[in-house]
Amino acid sequence: MKMPKPTEADREWFHSLVPDEPGVEVKPMFGNLGAFVNGNMFMGLLGSDVGLKLAAEDVASLLQQPGAGPFGPGERPMGGYASVPATWTAEQAEPWVAKALAFVGALPPKAPKPAKAAKSGKAR
Predict the structure, then answer these.
(1) Domains contained in the chain, number
(2) What pLDDT, on a 0 to 100 scale, did the predictor assign at position 3?
């Protein structure tokens, strides 16, 4: 599966939408970006698409907007996410970003994965 790569303009657009809130951090993900709160992703960038993780009724509502669609690789869209229309302004997207942050922020924090044991490379 080939992952689409964002342009610098796509990255700037994504960063402009990320709320400046405590606990929110942006991390690289497979050549794209994800915005996280409490270790859970609430917003992602895949190529030029900005996707939001929302409650089921909000996903359905966002998908009713002209230009909105599923989020993720075409052959494997991510459940619980919808992409905002590419034609939207920041003012149009911000209420939806706030909904995604509130929804995911209410989830239990993601537990950190245990560190993998180092392989010694020596035969026993």
Answers:
(1) 1
(2) 76
